[in-house]
Amino acid sequence: MKQIFKLLCGFLAGFFLCAGFFHETPKSPAGLQQAREVAAVQFYPVVKVIDGDTIDVIINGQKQRVRLLGVNTPETVDPKKPVQCYGPQASAIARQKLSGASVELQSDPGQGNTDKYHRLLRYVFLADGTDFDEWLIANGYGFEYTYDKPYEYQTEFIDAQAKAQVNKLGLWAADTCNGKLKPQLRRS
């Protein structure tokens, strides 16, 4: 009887391990919530918001700087550039939504692990499953940003930007930047 129990436990453990290995992260908030219920998700505390697209989190007891993937917000802290239109608003909303929060970080297999400034490149998900990178774009706080090559959520982010433009949200509004601020395509 013990041998049957051990075999059954081994089979079930192998099954769930393989199911997790082949699991694809869902893109919808509802799908992400269901995935969280099945798999243990790691959340990391945000200890500092640098600007609209850069945060500091604690990972394994160490502070790590994270650059959000697929989004570029107007500059506020680059000493070589002036504060850009709608940059203060993008930084403020990031502080409001992320300061003191714990977030899920997701890497993109098509992108590098870090950028040239040694920042981790990650998508940031809120506890409710919201993709914060996409949320920034959809609400007009930033631009869709393709650095070098396509990324996992590129289509969704491009669509989010198009909707923000059509609805004249945030930096697309006539009384703010009116979309005149052009995204940085590459940083030197």
Q: Can I get a quick summary?
A:
The protein has 188 residues and is α+β, with helices and mostly antiparallel strands. The protein has helices spanning 2-21, 29-38, 87-98, 132-138, 154-166, and strands spanning 44-51, 54-59, 62-68, 71-72, 102-106, 120-125, 143-144.
The number of distinct β-strands equals: 7
Order of helices and strands: HHEEEEHEEHEH
Radius of gyration: 19 Å
3D shape: globular
Structural category: alpha+beta
Roughly what percent helix?
Answer: 25-40%
Mean pLDDT: 83
Name of the CATH first level of the largest domain: Mainly Beta
The CATH architecture name of the largest domain reads Beta Barrel
Tell me what you see in this structure.
The protein is α+β, with helices and mostly antiparallel strands and 188 residues long. It has two domains: 37 residues; 129 residues, OB fold (Dihydrolipoamide Acetyltransferase, E2P), CATH 2.40.50.90. It has five helices and seven strands. A five-stranded mixed β-barrel has the order 1-2-3-6-5. A two-stranded antiparallel sheet has the order 4-7. Helix 4 runs parallel beside helix 5. The chain is globular. The N terminus and C terminus are likely disordered.
